[in-house]
Amino acid sequence: MAAYYEKLTTLFWVSENYLFHAFAWYKYYTLCKEFNRGMSVEMRQMQASAVLLAALCIPTVSETQKSQKKKEDAIDAQRHHIQSTVEDDIAKEKMARMATLLGFHTRHPTREALLHEIQSRNIMEDVPDYLRDLYSLLEANSDPLVMVATARPLLEKLRAEVGSTNASMEEDEDSDDSTLARYVRPLTSVLLLKLLTNLSTAYHTVSLDHIKSLTSGLGVTFQQVEKLIVLSTHSKKFSVRIDHRAGCLRFGDADLESDAMRGQLTSLSKQLSSVCRFITPPDEVHQMAIREQLYSDVRASVENEHAAMLERKNLIEKRKEETERLAQERLKEEARAKAAKEAARKAEEEARMAVEERKRRMEKAQMIQKKMDDMEKKKIMKAMGRNIDNVTEEELNQIDTDKLAKEHADKDRKKKEAAERKTKELAKRLDYTYRAIAIEELPLIEKKYAEKIKSDRSRYEAEVVEKARKARLQWEADVKDKKVLSDHSVYDYTADFEALVMKGRQAAHQELCRAEDERAEIDAEKQKLARARKRKEDELKRQKEEEERLKREEEARKAEAERVKREEERRKKEEEEEKLRQAERARMQEEAAKKERLRQESVKPPPPSRDLDAAASAANGPSGGGNRYVPPSRRGRPGGGDDRRGPGGDRGGSRWGGGGAGGYGGGRYEGGGRYEGGGRDRPAGGDRYGDRDRGYGGGDRDRRPGGGDRGGGDRDRRPPEPRNSRWS
């Protein structure tokens, strides 16, 4: 199921259905959190952030749009129209069926319901702090002047977020962008819509330059903002007009903006009343009588009219409900019948087309197979050397393809064997011929090679002589040219020209050096002024920083004094509480001691002499527990194993039991138990080591306070005496 909802998130994101995309993310996150116990903290935080961002990307429905819808419904009700049309009901039912089919927790998914689920499921605890701030900004903040400035760094941080929102997408390189940065664009649209909505509730006119300054830094152009305004106005989220001539936005209904339109009916009523009073002055007595008669008639008929209005209203509601129900039933029945008829027609058509397609496929396959067989037969017959031009279709059908192929294969095999035999004989003959030719042509090749060497040597010697002659002629011509150039003294003219050029260049160089020196002096003066200005600014900045430092130190001293004061108050309060706890502890100890004294005073007197002898003999026995038999597994236990109370004697009933002068040994309630009353050397303690810290009464074996509810030696649930406890 988790993989199913994971695919749904991608599907609804591509289709830009942000509502179902957010609900799919919520289901995917809850399933992963419930069943994927090994999910890391980073992955859980990333998925929780994706759930919150997907919910925030859902377009909001403003109060203006809701009021506009209520106003239109009221107008329809006055005109005796059905408030919710059949199309709206069908759309709602379609969305409810879609939500049920996808397994969402509600049949009517909305943005408010999803945000309420996120808050109630504590998903915000896994979300980073800057996303919580973004949620508070979009849901709670209504100041349009600081909204974008506050959201800009949060969106930049979200845009820089890296990492995938699930493990499977991390391994898929061809998948779309699955990071949190993909939510920046829809979040920017939601932020701009909320900004414009808040501006429409707070302002009547806003300049376009102010809108540009408010939306700067979000990565959107003003054309995109203008397009969003037009789409929002078209969807009746708010009413606004863009006045490009005045360069502003005008919020509010255009039909009611004129003051004359607002007060037209009031002005007309006042003028008509003045005219009527001027033409026919009212008779006060007659008017009073008419008014009294009117009031009496109204009082007499008000109840009947009220009942009639209620009855008429109920009748109208019933008629509208009945009309709506009948219309819905009729549409549903027509749709059901049409769907059934269309399904039957499609099924019949598909079955017929499937049969025809299968039949055509079989016929085509048979025809292709037959053509291939005929072509194979003709090919084999042509390879065998037969004439296939006069072969008819019937003759081809009578020929067996396998038999013909076998015959052709035998014939080819025989031809191949004959060709191989001829090739071997020819190769043998050619080998003999080549060897004979090589033997005969060897002397001719040697003679031709010697002639070639002789001709090459002659040609080389002739080329060397010709090259030396040409070099001599070239040298003589060069010597003549040098002599002619030396007579005309060209080099003197060249030196004069070079001196003239260098003189001009030196003058230009000196002029450039002078201009550069002047510019260097000007730059030095400017730098000097800049350094002076910089020193002044640094001094002012240092003074300002010094003042801020002194101010911070003063605030720190005040905060430290306040902290010391609070710490002192807290310490005094803790000391008072400690005194109260000690007093309460002393009171409880005193009450426990008092109850112990009362219990000891209520002990019965010793038994008669016969019982004393029996008790003494029992005390001297191996277990000190009485006259009854004690099994070995219970010997040596506290109290010696007898349930009856008896005097302890000199040594008590057991090594834990209270023998001796002060205790009652043998019984498991008093004297000889491991919780109370030992003997001469173990007073008021059941522990074998006296007053060790094993419970409040020093007698329990575990280190719980008082050994459970058995402190003090008795099994009733009275508070133990904390004399030997580590908690006292």
From TrEMBL:
Residues 312-378 form a coiled coil. Residues 514-528, 535-602, 671-728 have a biased composition (Basic and acidic residues). SMART domains: PINT. GO terms for molecular function: mRNA binding; translation initiation factor activity. Pfam families: eIF3a_PCI_TPR-like (PF22591), PCI (PF01399). Keywords: Coiled coil, Cytoplasm, Initiation factor, Protein biosynthesis, RNA-binding. GO terms for biological process: formation of cytoplasmic translation initiation complex; translation reinitiation. GO terms for cellular component: eukaryotic translation initiation factor 3 complex, eIF3e; eukaryotic translation initiation factor 3 complex, eIF3m; multi-eIF complex. Residues 63-256 form the PCI domain. Residues 649-670 have a biased composition (Gly residues). Residues 402-421, 514-728 are annotated as: Disordered. PANTHER family: EUKARYOTIC TRANSLATION INITIATION FACTOR 3 SUBUNIT A, EUKARYOTIC TRANSLATION INITIATION FACTOR 3, THETA SUBUNIT. This is PCI domain-containing protein.
